[in-house]
Amino acid sequence: MAVRVCLGFLILLLHSNFSTALYEDQVGLADWHQKYIGKVKQAVFPTQRTGKKRVVVSTEENVIASLDLRTGDIFWRHVLGKDDHVDQIDIALGKYFITLSSEGSILRAWNLPDGQMMWESALYGSTPSKSLLFVPANTNLGKENRILVFSGGWLHAVSSIDGEIIWKKEFAIDRLEIKQVFQPLESDIIYAVGFVGSSQFSVYQLSSKSGEVLKHNTASFPSGFCGEVSLVSSDMLVALDATRSALISISFQSGIINFHQTYISDLLQDFSGMAALLPVKFTGMFAVKTVSGICLVRVKGVSELEVIEKFNHPASVSDVLTISGEQQAFAIVQHAETKIDFKVKLDKDLRNDVLKETVEMDPQRGHVQKVFINNYIRTDKSHGFRALIVMEDHSLLLVQQGEIVWSREDGLASIIDSTTSELPVEKEGVSVAKVEHNLFEWLKGHVLKLKGTLMLASPDEIAAIQAMRLKSSERNKMTRDHNGFRKLIIVLTRAGKLLALHTGDGRVIWSLLLPSLHRSEACGHPSALNIYQWQVPHHHAMHENPSVLVVGRCGPSHDALGVFSVVDSYTGKERNSLKLAHSIIQVIPLPLTDSTEKRLHLIIDANLQAHLYPRTRDSVNIFLHEMSNIYWHSINVGKGVIRGYSLRSGCNLDVVDEYCFNTKELWRIVFPSESEKIATTATRKMNEVVHTQAKVLADQDVMYKYISRNILFVATVAPKAAGEIGSVTPEEAWLVAYLIDTVTGRILHRVTHQGAQGPIRAVVSENWVVYHYFNLRAHRYEMSVIEIYDQSRADNKDVRKLVLGKHNLTSPVSSYSRPEVMVKSQSYFFTHSVKAMAVTATAKGITSLQLLIGTIGDQVLALDKRFLDPRRTATPTQAEKEEGIIPLTDSLPIIPQAYVTHALQVEGLRGIITIPAKLESTTLVFSYGVDIFFTRIAPSRTYDSLTEDFSYALLLITIVALVAAIFVTWILSEKKELREKWR
Amino acid sequence: MRRSAEAIASLLLLLLSCHLPSVLAGAASLGDGYTIAGRVKLEGSGKTTIGFVPPMKNSNAKVILNGGQRVTFLREDGYFSFHNVPAGTHLIEISAMGYFFSPVRIDISARNPGKIQAALTENRRVLQELVLEPLREEQYYEMREPFSLMSLLKSPMGLMVGFMVIVVFLMPKLMENMDPEEIRRAQEEMGAQGVPSLSSLLPGRSN
């Protein structure tokens, strides 16, 4: 009896704490977080004493950040809205970082030391135009500083202290395009220069006090301009003519406009094709980019142009940097094989280099794309230079004194797809970890841990425990582990780079800038699309390394030719690459592998023909055998059509190609375009495992799940309500959710939500769909769940029938059998907007599921699927409670401890990926956006293994205490017995 | 739900009829939109956090309009504004680590230019002014309970030890108080059941 009570207690204790929350000292044990900023577009170096060691940047991911020049760490960072692209940046008053964003309509000032927004101004424009920002140099501190912004056809003068608009002036002339706005030093006149149409040049002189137009001159140039200009001095600029083959120097001194045309071929003998002016700011010179390289040209007078130097591609030129008074410097970076040459020149002495350094460069970083230069005073009072270099793979490097001081792998801010790979199996006799240290050390460690759990440890000891845990070499080994926690996450970035990250600590194991996605003559604008598992050896071909397939396309349009690349997952070397002779519309990984365990892939091209890969005899034989069972579907969002296809052999190509197959349309669903527009589609994950086919209810009843791989969830919205929230009234909006069988095109279920609109996020798993949308009536977000059950198998409950074999359980589940389905659904309110949604995945599918919801605050919330159970009622019966049904509430709970990202944010969250570990209870979660975050979670706690916190010391102490107690009682009883005998 | 909706409607009517000075917004000068301006109060929200999440600074909070359509940041004094917002019903969300904010429903009336109504969507509270305070603070970590003898005893191993102590020291006491006849009978019964009892095991060891 007592044993039972004790056991009961134990069970109670184990179950008392159901949440999977973390203690603060467990942070970093199973998770890691990396902060990125994306590809740097612009950078400025603060010159004020306090900000000398920093650089502020804006990036293509709409991030603005302040970085430490010594380490590359982020001081502060802000991720702007998704449409809030930063156009221009500068520094005003020496303490404010000014950004002009959203096509020049928002001007913000940020405090340089801490990134606090100081002011924000909205600038209204009437016509869309290029936006320009000019911050006059801070020569006179007493004078009020004004920022000049040209955007939307208006010129604004904005106070840099509080962002107030002092005056504004509209340039309402038809077809006028202002190209440059500037104010010469110590001058009260603002110049605005631009073109009217393609052949007229216009100069405005405005008063900086009031914005009045003081002078306006125009002159026309018959052969026209292409629109590119480069300002050379305060009264001269250089433009390109309409054919891009001649340079026109324009001087506009005191209102007189002079043109002088110089053919580029006169300057450069080998010039051919088209030229472009580089948007770098020089005084007295400009840079021309031609097919063969970059050319620096000095302007001596209107008619005198002189080529200073020519650099062959790939090269990059920095902006000019003013150092000590009149002197100006600029940098040139040139690529040579695996090295880069970094040169700095002074404008006084253009022939010679002040500094010339050669830096060894990782070839996987590609070419130099941008360079920003900064100077510092050396100990001997001379000027030293450092350069911030942006590479082709979006990484950011700081070069100083001939070496790379730090580098940031910022390509990871733009992950487009990812997959995982197992690590190699540990070989006999080869152990990476060093031999277990002696028993005393081990015990000491555990005693420390015990102290930690009992809250007895001093801060020093806590730090020691933390260090010990983080150091544990176990999790960073390069071999497969028993629990399947150690894997490689292979990610594909927008720059066309593959990186393998170790799940233990997130370090980059290898990286590869895909050579097949490199720009070449055959492939103009290559872009990476997706990454797939190509070969996962486990039974056969064990000696081979696994590999992944990267699919890309040679241009922005859908009918551009495809590119294939197979990369070894262990070494990061490209095994082979292929230029396809057809386009890629869709890639279908088939659940079939050939004899070397290469997965079969079908590529659908723009002509709806299917191509089989790998192109071997073996794979064709396997494929032909299964071809009658292969169906696929296409979704045309624009036209609102979903079509289902089957495959037939033979292709209408000129050449006989046995790997090419024809497709035949089987069914189509056309949504009425006037009332429905496809908003979202979702399918089940291909590798999902379902453990139980049935659900046993509390009243001993059984419900059979309708589990089909071919379920497609489609959500359509009213075309009027396809936009953002706030654009429609509830009466005009509706959302229709469909569940479609993709083999037969049968609509299994259809439900309409009146007054609902997108954005819709949906996730399909097992026999259910969960989707998130906006309810306009309640003006809150809502989440709905639909569960489908198979009615045709519902009468398989009689045990006698089962025993006698009179059941249909063994009959194959087929889409063609048209089973009766039963659908249950329910809706709940959810507080936040959702950016991404995923569901946990475990090895065998036994563990209960959790939804992972990426909220608007860039956090990932784990929500038990039990909260989204259509069988929830407001007052569950006793039996239902025992079954684990939670009483119905109108909104889903948000428990702060259930955020898997705990106190971290995955800024700019875009995707969540779940990977099953080998340990059934555990799921690995990888979420990415601008930041990347990895953790492992156990939706029903780690019931199949001891936690890392498990205190072995406490166990040992207990055992020792018990043994001691046994001895003591034994001695006592001996004595007692002796006494009894003497009595 | 319906009743509360009615209540809100009547409140709105009340607000309209009272002609309260609307500090929420002013009509925009240019363009056809309006300006939503408000304030987020983080510091004055009551108790300070208990050190786990560092006290939030305004610089890390974001204000999000219509689920990400536009994002803005707080100024030093907690003020924020969205410019050029068209008339209609909008949603504002605030993301600040360590705090839970209710989304806010903003109605910009097209008929009554510049008139803006705001209400929290979580508890349907109508806001007179667009001053947003967190509904609650969020604690992302589980708190470690301070060391106590009880927690040690309550742990499975503590229970084991405790149980053993009880068996070792209390059982013999109980036995002593028992009638020897009864003990014998009980032992016989147990022997008949074939289940070795703990009391018979212990002296058995000492033999």
From TrEMBL, chain A:
Recorded topology in the membrane: Single-pass type I membrane protein
Annotated source species: Elaeis guineensis var. tenera (Oil palm)
Domain of life of the native organism: Eukaryota
Residue ranges of domain EMC1 first beta-propeller in the record: 21-410
Family under the similarity heading: Belongs to the EMC1 family.
Stored Gene3D superfamilies: YVTN repeat-like/Quinoprotein amine dehydrogenase (2.130.10.10)
Subcellular location: Endoplasmic reticulum membrane
Signal sequence extent: 1-21
SUPFAM superfamilies with a match to the protein in the record: Quinoprotein alcohol dehydrogenase-like
Residue ranges annotated for the ER membrane protein complex subunit 1 C-terminal domain, each copy included: 765-982
The name this protein goes by in its record: ER membrane protein complex subunit 1
Biological processes, Gene Ontology terms: protein folding in endoplasmic reticulum
Gene: LOC105048316
Entry's Gene Ontology cellular component terms: EMC complex
Keyword flag Ubl conjugation: no
Record text on subunit structure and interactions: Component of the ER membrane protein complex (EMC).
Transmembrane segments: 950-973
Record keywords, A-Z: Endoplasmic reticulum, Glycoprotein, Membrane, Signal, Transmembrane, Transmembrane helix
TrEMBL record, chain B:
GO cellular component: EMC complex
GO MF annotation terms: carbohydrate binding
Stretch list, region Disordered: 188-207
Keyword Cell division: no
Transmembrane regions: 157-175
Keyword Calcium found: no
Topology relative to the membrane: Single-pass membrane protein
Location of the ER membrane protein complex subunit 7 beta-sandwich domain: 58-160
Keywords from the named record: Membrane, Signal, Transmembrane, Transmembrane helix
Biased composition (Polar residues): 196-207
Subcellular location: Membrane
Signal peptide positions (record): 1-25
Cited InterPro entries: Beta_sandwich_EMC7, Carb-bd-like_fold, EMC7
Similarity field: Belongs to the EMC7 family.
Record's protein name: ER membrane protein complex subunit 7 homolog
Species: Elaeis guineensis var. tenera (Oil palm)
